[in-house]
What does this fold into?
Amino acid sequence: MTDAGPRPRARRRRDTEHRLTHDTDLWVASASPDGAPHLVPLSFDWDGATLLMATPSGSPTGRNLAATRTTRLALGHTRDVSMIEGEVEVLEIDALPRQRGERFAARTGFDPRPLATPYRWFRVTPRRIQAWREEDELRGRELMRDGRWLD
It folds into this structure.
């Protein structure tokens, strides 16, 4: 536990939005249609409403996200985590506006567009966000529900 006590929801939201704006990588959890789990780190870009990621179309993550259209993402480490559950939109690599692809490449240092391996974009719209540091923050950890920030 922290000496200062649990952060209020408004502070947790600011901290989560800061992490979304400044972090480059996150953990992506997906599952195959028959329930086989898969977990990988991917780079991402946050535009204030959605997270954009890219991975090979034929990878387990690419196949899982395309099939189930849902994911769970984790930012941070175990003692200061933001968990995001979201809906996945699948975009072919050339379907994204050029400016958005340029922004992703500049922010992450990775550009999947010229690669020989077929990649897709995966745009995640958060539906639920939780954030906590330690046990004293488990209560009140939900920051977003049904795609809406809580007051």
